[in-house]
Write a structure and sequence with these properties.
alpha+beta, 2 helices, 8 strands, disordered N terminus
Length: 137
């Protein structure tokens, strides 16, 4: 009987743990993004924060081959808030052939040339760190 109670107790604890942990990790994705022209990793969490301040750019519609989202700031940059990402949509203007953009400066230059338009997507803000990618062997 004691063995049975231990097994039932253990299963109850495991079930409780999974109930608490799985929703918190569901939807968490690792993404490769450009930051200052380099590919880095970030982790996108499923819970929006609706108050991001670090610019993060995602392309909608047509994009150049190899285009990744772009983190506008990173560790060590003035005003970096640890990855409290403020989501911005970037779309190419009709008639402009998309070309690869790898930094916030590239996006702002393309916008200045009238090649892209941007809009804020506050409902998609998220929190996630920037992780430097190790060179592949």
């Amino acid at each position: 009987m004691k063995k049975y109670l231990r097994i039932v107790s253990t299963l109850a604890i495991v079930a409780l743990f999974l109930t608490a942990v799985l929703p918190a990790t569901a939807g968490v994705t690792k993404s490769t993004v450009f930051y200052d022209g380099n590919e880095v990793l970030t982790i996108e969490t499923p819970a929006p924060i609706n108050s991001g301040s670090d610019p993060y750019y995602r392309f909608l519609g047509a994009a150049a081959p190899g285009q990744l989202p772009i983190a506008g700031v990173g560790p060590g940059d003035p005003g970096f808030n640890g990855g409290a990402w403020a989501m911005h949509a970037v779309a190419w203007i009709t008639g402009v052939t998309p070309y690869l953009l790898k930094s916030e400066a590239d996006i702002l230059a393309a916008q200045g040339l009238g090649h892209v338009r941007m809009g804020r997507l506050a409902g998609e803000d998220f929190r996630g760190p920037i992780l430097l990618k190790a060179p592949l062997p």
